[in-house]
């Protein structure tokens, strides 16, 4: 068996979800909403199954969806893309990340990773033969620094894998941080794989700034988006890949021999959804921000130390004031004794983990969040 995959342990995400099922706990661990998603987008997918094309669509994606992606990014982010040569559709963002790594690195190439990080990154890098180099980010602000980047980049750096907005820290990186990262990419001739699946989940008037839009980065970025995150349909697995033509040609080869294509009915529905007017996207952000604020206020009323949440579905708390030093043990006790499942943020690190931060998903109905707060009562006293 392949040693990279065979040697992987059971993830804490699986452990916590299993404990939640076994104990009947309120599961605020896994990052998905309990809302079914926009009815009109789902209806379009259903109609396309019954009345549309259900055989192989084009390998790069339905032309109407590729054009919709280009139009969407032009309108919302000022990013001009050619739908024919710079946009591809994948079966989710994780496939897009896997394909990009397989396409862009040779065994022995170094890949810069920012921890805390999405749990798929490291095994995918290793399976592609890459050598990981880590930049460790620390709460409460999780900022990039010149010193940390200088320690991670080298002449062997080929790729940077960067998540913005960042799960699990819920930070939205400002231009200053992105400009710093861009300078290192240019200096070391590295390509940035930009996992931007949370690009629409930003709050308090913030605007997502794609790394690709910065000077010098247009030809050295792979931008990855997700319909599942934009429309709260996490099971749909429809990803968008944008890159300069010479890069996209190679990415397409990896996609061809991974999944080849993505269900055409979902592609049709997503093309419709991306063209929705601004009111949908503004309302979606407003609704999630309201849930964030409701849960934040509830946690603070219990005496818990809540870290800033600028984007994503997540809120983090600092458990140090509770006298806790082990986030994994804390989360296991929380689900067993309080009936609430959360995720220890140390699970998102490979080395030198932060052990005092715990992540909750707030993308839930009010009754779910209120029920969790009731069970957490007295925790911070």
UniProtKB/TrEMBL annotation:
Belongs to the class-I pyridoxal-phosphate-dependent aminotransferase family. It catalyses: L-aspartate + 2-oxoglutarate = oxaloacetate + L-glutamate. Keywords: Aminotransferase, Pyridoxal phosphate, Transferase. Its cofactor is pyridoxal 5'-phosphate. It comes from the Bacteria. GO terms for cellular component: cytoplasm. This is aspartate transaminase. One of its GO terms (molecular function) is pyridoxal phosphate binding. Its EC number is 2.6.1.1. It comes from Chelatococcus daeguensis.
